[in-house]
Amino acid sequence: MAIHRPHRRRDGPELQARRSPFLAESVFGKVRLSATSKAARNFERAVQDNVTINGQPWQSFDDLQNDTDIKLLEDQLDDLIVDVASKRNQYPREVQVQLVKAIKTQQKLLGCCQPAMNFQEVKADPSQDSYMADLSLSTRTASNHARETFKSLASLVEKGEGFSKALSLQPTLELCQLRQQIISAPGGKKENKTDVKDLTSQVEVTPPQAAVSNSVLLKIKRRPCSPQRRYPLRQRKIGLDT
């Protein structure tokens, strides 16, 4: 960090003596630079005034030289434009000719190549056409039958459910008929008792879950000579398949 000290009056001559060489050098440099630039300008002016090119002064020759250069450039530009236009018309035709030649040579090369295997034509058997026609007809009929069965499946299921309900109600109907016969049968008490025994021995009551193999059957004792033993009842099986 620089420390500034106050200058005294007696220090002035010393500072001026120290800085005088630098000031003299800077002033002399400026004077020398201006003198050299002035000398260069004078020399250039003297050359332009005293030198002639082809009998013409320096200033007029520069203008003529520029004009000639511009004319040369314009002529070269015109030549280039003409050359490019001619090439635009010429080169596509040449390229087309070369392309046609290349395609022809490629076709010749392909013609020279022979396949390693002889191809054999496969003809369809006429009998297969009839088989295919029969197969298509059978598939159509099968699809129609399947469509009809699917349509009638819901109604068949409803009918089967109603039929199974009716069969489940059959034992109750038989009991009702038996009771009606017991109540409406004429004669003595003994005959009624024997008739009841005969009638009850002929009836076998089954619950609605008759399809189960382990179902409990409510059986009544039968006489040894009852027709139920001679002709036993068979379980009824209902098939819903059509």
TrEMBL record:
<protein>
    <recommendedName>
        <fullName>NSL1 component of MIS12 kinetochore complex</fullName>
    </recommendedName>
</protein>
<dbReference type="Pfam" id="PF08641">
    <property type="entry name" value="Mis14"/>
</dbReference>
<dbReference type="GO" id="GO:0000444">
    <property type="term" value="C:MIS12/MIND type complex"/>
</dbReference>
<dbReference type="InterPro" id="IPR013950">
    <property type="entry name" value="Mis14/Nsl1"/>
</dbReference>
<dbReference type="GO" id="GO:0000070">
    <property type="term" value="P:mitotic sister chromatid segregation"/>
</dbReference>
